[in-house]
Each structure stands twice: as structure tokens, then as C-alpha cells.
Amino acid sequence: MVVKDHRGAPLSGANTRAVELYETAVCQxxxxxxxxxxxxxxxxxxxxxxAMAIALKxxxxxxxxxxxxxxxxxxxxxKLRNLKLNDRxxxxxxxxxxxxxxxxxxxxxxxxxxxxxxxxxxxxLQMGHLLDFFRGDSRNLRDRVARVLAEWDEHVPGYHxxxxxxxxxxxxxxxxxxxxxxxRRALQFNKRxxxxxxxxxxxxxxxxxxxxxxxxxxxxxxxxxxESFFQVHNWWHLxxxxxxxxxxxxxxxxYDGPIRGGQSSMILDMVDASALLWRLKLRGIDLGDRWxxxxxxxxxxxxxxxxxxxxxxxxxxxxxxxxxxxxERTVSILTETARKQSDNALMSRDVGLPLARALVAFxxxxxxxxxxxxxxxxxxxxRFGGSHAQRDLIDLTxxxxxxxxxxxxxxxxxxxERLALKPKSPLARRYRDQGAKQAA
Length: 440
What we know:
The chain is mainly alpha-helical. The protein has helices at 16-31, 36-46, 51-62, 70-81, 87-100, 104-117, 122-134, 138-149, 159-172, 176-189, 194-207, 210-219, 221-224, 231-244, 248-259, 267-282, 290-298, 308-320, 324-338, 343-363, 367-374, 388-404, 408-421, 426-439.
């Protein structure tokens, strides 16, 4: 008898009990809840030659864009390649190999090839979607899901996941009404879908609906925070709503509580912590010794050379902690990376390196140089990954550098731009008023 997953795909090396454990791990991954690695470990213990369970564990290890788990993922890949695989599983092995090698674009293509032939492969879809996010490919965030969505309906297990992912892709391409509709529909099927809650937070952030966004996150906290390994990022979104309302003290309380209170060593959480502190630093907020703790976590990672987006957030933390020499060392490492031939080298050349240089220039009070480095990045920053909300840090640094440099016309222009997008934003109005006062 051929054993299949819950969407009808044949599975090599699995028994029925292992499949149930595997599907539980997939559901946990879909919603970003629980311990999918532990659950898939149980599936592998039940069926040691279960190819897709081994592949899923490798993907889970690689999904955080961290160097540390790569050797373990490579061991899993070697084990996978020694098994008798079907065609789909061989394709997954090839995609995992690309990820291990840092060939993110090629991995994305291989995952898309799987989906063209099997549009119900939810693991390929979610990993592909994450890669689109990490590579800043907003069109594919939307269209990778759109290419398979018509092949699904509410009766296929995991359907809510597609709606949540499609919502985020729609938001990143500016289709806010459809994005919110799709995310809310996803939550009708599964209120624990952390990615769908996240998509709604992004919609409200981009539209400047800061009061409504904060209320939404608070009212739905049980859906996105409980036992979620994605909760720090969603708490970060709540902090952004507080910052947009010009309530920096409230954002700092969130930092000290759910964002950094647990001192997470996950790089995705460290990115959020560093980005929030940098935003507060731009406003002249006294952050005490908070920078030192996060800088200590970043320091051992500056040689990773895996993902320029991470490296730039390490630079922020090191600068904030007064460890400018270490920040400049990170810039030197980015310079070395940019000379190579890899996907991360391209990210480093185009965006990561000039951004890191701009951050160091800002710290040295070289605001004109900061402006010169940041202005060309604004329209290409997606090339090194992240979301519009995350990359807004570039614009925030630029407008603060312009203010400190006395470039009142540039401050006015940038403030007008923000107000056009978020006409009710207290933060945008403050920037405009600051510029007008400086010019007077």
C-alpha cells in the first residue's frame, strides 16, 4: 500500500503513525506554533527512512536564515540522498542542497518547479514563500501562491495557510483591501494562523491605521501570541503602531517585555529587537544598557557571511552599544562578501554594504555622507530582503540624517511623502513640523 500525505502525495519510508506526526508538524509550521522540529523528530523516530519528514526538518532548520543550523541540515541532506526517493522527494533534496549552499534564487526556482507539478505541496509552498520574503521578491510573494490557489479549496488541509500567505503577498504589492480580506478569511478557518495576523498588521502599518492596528493586535493576542515562535515579530508590529502614534515610551515597554524579555537567540527575533532600538535611537531616546545585551548576541555571528539583511542589523546593535570598531569590522566583512559570486554577495553589493556604511557614517555624525549613501537605496532596498515595514528603517534614518544635517528642504520633502501615505500619522506630522521649525 502506498502511504500518502493528507493532500494525496505519495510518501517514501513512512508508516501511518509517522504520517500523522508529520502532518502535525506541518500544521505547526503553517501556523508558527508549538515545536514542529520536536514533532517531526518524533515522526522520524517512528519511521527513520521517512523522506519528507527528514526534508521538513532540514527546511525548518534552514528557515531562520542562520548559519548555525546549516551543518545539521547538511547531515540530513546526506541521509536523504541515501534513501530511495520518488521524483518529488528528489526535487526537495535538490532545493535543500541549494539552500545549504546559499543559492537562494536557485532554491526558489526548484521549489516553484515542484509546485508546478504538485500545487498541493504545502511544504514547498511555505518554504518558497519564506524565500520570497527573505529575497524581497514582492511579486513572487503574491504570485507563487496565486499560481496554485485555484487548485485548492477549503476542503484541502492547510487551505488557510495559502490565504494567509497570499494576503501577505497582496499587501507587499500594495493591494491592501484584498490582502486584508484574504487574511481575515484565513483566520475564519484557523484563528491561530500567525502569518495571517501578521499580514493584517502589515496592511494597517502601510495604511497608517496605527490606532486600529494596535487595537487589532491586542484584541487578537490569543491567536498570534500563545505558544508561537513568531510572536516576537508580531509584538514588534504592535511596537511600530506605538511609534507611529509617537508613543515611544509604550514601544520601549514592549521591548523590555515580550520583544526582548526572553532574550531570544533566534536571529529573526534579534533583527526585530535591533530594528526597534534603532528606531528609538533615532528619536534620541535613552536606551541605557539595552544595546549591550543584544550586541553581545550579535558579536559571535558577524563572521557568518550568510545574509546581508542580518549583518546590517548586527551593525545597528554594535553601533548602539558603542562598539563602533566591531561595527566597522562587520562592514569590512560585508566588503569581502560583496566581492564574491553568490546571492548574498549581490545582496551585499547592492544594499547591505552601502546601508552598513551609512549606519556607521550616521554614528560618526557624517550626516551628508549618510544621505548620499541612503538616497540611492530607497528604490532598490528590496533586493536584500525583508518587508516594506522593515525596510522603512532606511527612510527613517535618512530623514533623521537630513534633519541633523540641516537639509530642511529634504526633510520637508520626505515628511510630505510620508504624510501622503499616512495622512493621520502623528510621527509624519512631527517630522514635517520639525522641518518647518528648523527652516524658520
